[in-house]
Design brief:
The chain is globular and about 55 Å long. It contains eight helices and four strands, in the order αααβααβαβαβα. Helices cover 39% and strands 13% of the residues. A four-stranded antiparallel beta sheet has the order 1-2-4-3, with helices on both faces. It has a single domain, classed as NADH Oxidase (3-Layer(aba) Sandwich). It is α+β, with helices and mostly antiparallel strands. This is 5,6-dimethylbenzimidazole synthase. One of its GO terms (biological process) is cobalamin biosynthetic process. One of its GO terms (molecular function) is nucleotide binding. Its EC number is 1.13.11.79.
């Protein structure tokens, strides 16, 4: 049975002011994946703590809060992880058609060594016990919850003027070994964090012709799945 005192604890439900709404949407629409444009300026501990606290306030199934945050600042460790990235990136190049490889190689896809802070966000799938409220019929909900934490952090970082880059071109096993992550813990995101002096007006991959943003109207279906037009 839920604790009645907790269930009765309500706060202010007033809508945001126009200025507050504008600030929220500005963070959403101007959020970018920063790949290599980090400044050497360090991220203060109090600012990093605010970002992690924003992540920690993400919604989570069954309130299990499955995330952990591995903060990496050591230059030698970042250099090692950079080498893991370079190995995986060479594999990735070969996966694309020959006509795309030159454009792929021109993209700056990581800032592991330039960003003053690297952050690995994980999901402990055992947290909350064997049966978790809300996860009884969809075992992936803890993973989705942790991705919400990533998004919270990313939007907070945008508001703080800090760029974030998500490095996904890594072998999980190699990264797990480099950071001593237990086998039952899933790696969700490896992020680079640091101050930047500018953001792309559009996503970099769109600006450089890799892909375009899909029209929203083509992605909305009414009542049931429909064949895309």
């Amino acid at each position: 049975m839920l604790d009645k005192s907790a269930s009765d604890a309500f706060g202010d439900a007033e809508a945001f002011t126009a200025e507050e709404r504008a600030a929220l949407y500005k963070a959403i629409y101007t959020r970018r994946d920063v790949r290599d444009e980090f400044l050497p300026r360090p991220v203060p501990d109090d600012v990093l703590k605010r970002l992690l606290d924003a992540a920690h306030h993400a919604p989570s199934v069954g309130f299990m809060q499955p995330w952990n945050f591995v903060v990496i600042r050591d230059e030698s460790r970042r250099a090692h992880i950079h080498s893991l990235f370079m190995h995986a990136n060479e594999e990735a190049v070969a996966m694309f058609p020959p006509e795309q490889r030159a454009l792929y190689r021109s993209l700056k896809l990581e800032g592991i060594r330039k960003a003053p802070v690297n952050l690995c966000i994980t999901c402990d799938r055992t947290r909350g016990g064997k049966v978790v409220l809300g996860r009884t019929h969809n075992a992936q909900m803890d993973l989705y919850s942790t991705v919400c934490a990533v998004q919270n952090l990313w939007l907070a970082a945008r508001a703080e003027g800090i760029g974030v880059g998500w490095v996904s071109i890594l072998h999980d096993d190699a990264l797990r070994q480099a950071l001593s992550i237990p086998a039952h813990v899933e790696i969700i995101a490896y992020l680079c964090l640091g101050y930047v002096d500018q953001h792309y007006l559009r996503p970099e991959l769109e600006a450089k012709g890799w892909r375009r943003r899909l029209p929203l109207e083509e992605l909305i279906f009414e009542e049931e799945w429909q064949q895309p037009k």
